[in-house]
Specification:
With 95 residues, the chain is mainly α. It has one domain: 434 Repressor (Amino-terminal Domain) (Orthogonal Bundle). Helix content is 71%, strand content 0%. The protein has 4 helices and no strands.
Length: 95
């Protein structure tokens, strides 16, 4: 097995970091957009606290998903967390 040159390893690591930042940014934006759509549809301001209560999840977990500061955002959320959010918003926003 041939070992990679340190500069190649650094490039790979940097690409992985950029990929993670892009993914978390996209998730962050998509979730905010869905909350805005639900607010518009219902004519009320639907908050992250209301979402947390509706899906029976701690508010802090959802805040970490859409935190304005990228360094405080969760970049690898649990699948069951995402499933609960998607199921609720799919039912409420897309109907």
């Amino acid at each position: 097995m041939k070992l990679q040159h340190p500069s190649q390893t650094n490039k790979i690591f940097n690409c992985m970091q950029l990929s993670d930042q892009y993914y978390s940014s996209e998730l962050h934006l998509a979730l905010k957009e869905l909350l805005e759509k639900k607010s518009k549809r219902d004519g009320i301001n639907f908050t992250i606290s209301q979402l947390a209560k509706a899906i029976d999840m701690p508010h802090s977990i959802l805040v970490k998903l859409i935190h304005p500061d990228p360094s405080k955002r969760v970049t690898n959320p649990r699948i069951d967390t995402l499933t609960k959010i998607i199921d609720f918003l799919e039912l409420m926003v897309l109907t």
